[in-house]
Write a sequence for this structure.
C-alpha cells in the first residue's frame, strides 16, 4: 500500500526535517505484519514528496492466527494493497515524532500551515466518494477522488462497481495535523480494523482526535467506525473529547457513574511498560514512592489524613499509603482507565479486605481536566508521573481542577527531568521515555510552570530531585515539586 505527502512551500525539503526522515536515504522499519519504507520521489526546494510504502506479508498474517488450517480465501485479500489500519500503524511507527509536533532542526515550521497534499491509492471505502468528502472537507481539505474502475469485471457487469478509489486531499495545514487526520480517518474509511482491540483504542482516538474531532460534524460516525461500532466506547470517547472550556463538572461530562459504584468505573488504559523497563536499573518507581511518603509525613501543621492519588494507575502507591502508620483516615485513587483501576483493585486485594479497611479506600474513574466534586476534602493530592501525559494546552484545565477547585493543603508533583534522558544509552536522542508522553521538561521549565501556579493560586512551592544525581550536572532522573497552601 502506498501513501505520498507533497509539500510545495518555500524550502520544501524541510519536509524531511519535519518527518524526521532524510530525503537522501531510504528508511526501512520492520513491522509485525511486514515492512514499511519511506523514500522521496521528489526533493527540490520548490517541491518535496515523501512516500510511505507498506509491504504486508499476507502469508505471515494468516499463519499468525493459529487455530484451524487456513483456507485459500484467507490468503487472497486486499490487505497488502488497500490503505487500512495497517497503514495507520505504519504512520505512527514511521512518523510518530512528527505526529507529536517535534522538530529539533526546524522548530518554527512545526506549527506552520504550509501547502500540503496527501494521496492514497487503492483506498477501499464502502461509503464511496460521498463519505470521503464528508470526512475530509469539514477539516478544510480540497478533495479529489477517482474511482479505480467503473466495474469490478467487464465480463460480469452484474457484479457492479468496486469500492476502490484514489484520493488526494490538499490544504494549507501543518504536517502534524495532516498525519493525525490520516491516522484516524484511514481505518474509518476502510471500516475493517485488522486487530482485536479494547479500551486502549479509545485512548488512541481521544489522543489523536483532540482539538478537532469534537467539532467535526461527522464525529459520531468517525468514533463509531473507528471503534468497530462499540457504542459505549464511542460515546465515552466523544464525551472526553468535548470542549472543556470553563472546566465543566465531571458529572456533566458523563464521567461519574450513575450507580455511584466506584469499584467498576469506565475509562481507558494508560500503559507504562516501556518507561518502567527503561528506568528499571535505578528502581525509580520505588524511589518516587519513598519520596512521596516522606513528603506526606512532613506536611506542615496537622498531619495528613486524607490523600488522593490522581492518576493512580495499578495502585503501587496506594498499597504503600494503606500501610502508613499511624493509618491514614482515607486513601483514594483516581484514574482515567477502567482497566488500570481494576488491576489496582486486584493488586490491593480489595476482595479480601475487612469492612474497616475497605472503608478507608475508594477507587474511582475520572479525568483531570474536568471539575470533580469528589476531589474536595483531601488534604494531600499526588500527581506522580501524570502531567507529562497531557497535552500542554490541557494543563491549564488540570491546574484549575486541582489548585483552584479541589485546593488540598499539599500537592506533590513528580515528572521526568528531560536533562537526564541523555544519561541512558537505551534512550535515543529526541525520544521521550514513554510513547504517550506529550512533553518532558527540563528543571528550569518545570520550575517556571510550578512557580506560576504557586503565585496564581496562593501556594508556595519547593523543588527536589529523585534518584541518583548526575555528576555532569544533568540533575536527577525525576524532579519533584511540593506545593503548600499559604
Amino acid at each position: 500500500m502506498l501513501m505520498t505527502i507533497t509539500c510545495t512551500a518555500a524550502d520544501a525539503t524541510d519536509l524531511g526535517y519535519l518527518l524526521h526522515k532524510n530525503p537522501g536515504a531510504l528508511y526501512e522499519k520492520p513491522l509485525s505484519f511486514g515492512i514499511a519504507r519511506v523514500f522521496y520521489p521528489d526533493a527540490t526546494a520548490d517541491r518535496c514528496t515523501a512516500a510511505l510504502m507498506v509491504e504486508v506479508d499476507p502469508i505471515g498474517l494468516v499463519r499468525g492466527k493459529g487455530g484451524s488450517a487456513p483456507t485459500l480465501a484467507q490468503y487472497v485479500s486486499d490487505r497488502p494493497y488497500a490503505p487500512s489500519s495497517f497503514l495507520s500503524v505504519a504512520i505512527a511507527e514511521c512518523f510518530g515524532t512528527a505526529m507529536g509536533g517535534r522538530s529539533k532542526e526546524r522548530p518554527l515550521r512545526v506549527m506552520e500551515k504550509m501547502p500540503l497534499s496527501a494521496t492514497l491509492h487503492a483506498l477501499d471505502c464502502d461509503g464511496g466518494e460521498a463519505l470521503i468528502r464528508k470526512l475530509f472537507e469539514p477539516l478544510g481539505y480540497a478533495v479529489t477522488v477517482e474511482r479505480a474502475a467503473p466495474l469490478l469485471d467487464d465480463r460480469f457487469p452484474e457484479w457492479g462497481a468496486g469500492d476502490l478509489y484514489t484520493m488526494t486531499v490538499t490544504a494549507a495545514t501543518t504536517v502534524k495535523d495532516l498525519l493525525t487526520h490520516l491516522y484516524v480517518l484511514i481505518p474509518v474509511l476502510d471500516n475493517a480494523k485488522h486487530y482485536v482491540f479494547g479500551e486502549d483504542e479509545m485512548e488512541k482516538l481521544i489522543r489523536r482526535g483532540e482539538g478537532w474531532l469534537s467539532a467535526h460534524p461527522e464525529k459520531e460516525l468517525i468514533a463509531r467506525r473507528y471503534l468497530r461500532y462499540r457504542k459505549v466506547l464511542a460515546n465515552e470517547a466523544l464525551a472526553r473529547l468535548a470542549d472543556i472550556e470553563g472546566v465543566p463538572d465531571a458529572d456533566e461530562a458523563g464521567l461519574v457513574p450513575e450507580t455511584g459504584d466506584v469499584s467498576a468505573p469506565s475509562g481507558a488504559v494508560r500503559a507504562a511498560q516501556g518507561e518502567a523497563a527503561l528506568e528499571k536499573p535505578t528502581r525509580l518507581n520505588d524511589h518516587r514512592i519513598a519520596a512521596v511518603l516522606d513528603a506526606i509525613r512532613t506536611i506542615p501543621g496537622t498531619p495528613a489524613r486524607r490523600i488522593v492519588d490522581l492518576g493512580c494507575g495499578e495502585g503501587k502507591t496506594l498499597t504503600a499509603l494503606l500501610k502508613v502508620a499511624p493509618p491514614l483516615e482515607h486513601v483514594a485513587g483516581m484514574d482515567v482507565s477502567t482497566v488500570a483501576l481494576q488491576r489496582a483493585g486486584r493488586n490491593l486485594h480489595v476482595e479480601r479486605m475487612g469492612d474497616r479497611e475497605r472503608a478507608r479506600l475508594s477507587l474511582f474513574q475520572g479525568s483531570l481536566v474536568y471539575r470533580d466534586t469528589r476531589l474536595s476534602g483531601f488534604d494531600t493530592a499526588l500527581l506522580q508521573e501524570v502531567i507529562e501525559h497531557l497535552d500542554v494546552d490541557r494543563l491549564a484545565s488540570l491546574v484549575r481542577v486541582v489548585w483552584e477547585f479541589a485546593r488540598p493543603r499539599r500537592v506533590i508533583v513528580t515528572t521526568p527531568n528531560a536533562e537526564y534522558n541523555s544519561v541512558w544509552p537505551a534512550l535515543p536522542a529526541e525520544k521521550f521515555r514513554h510513547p504517550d508522553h506529550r512533553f518532558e521538561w527540563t528543571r528550569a521549565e518545570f520550575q517556571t510552570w510550578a512557580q506560576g501556579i504557586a503565585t496564581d493560586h496562593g501556594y508556595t512551592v519547593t523543588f527536589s530531585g529523585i534518584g541518583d544525581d548526575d555528576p555532569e550536572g544533568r540533575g536527577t532522573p525525576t524532579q519533584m515539586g511540593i506545593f503548600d497552601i499559604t
Remarks:
- Confidence is low (pLDDT under 50) at residues 243-249, 252-274, 277-282.
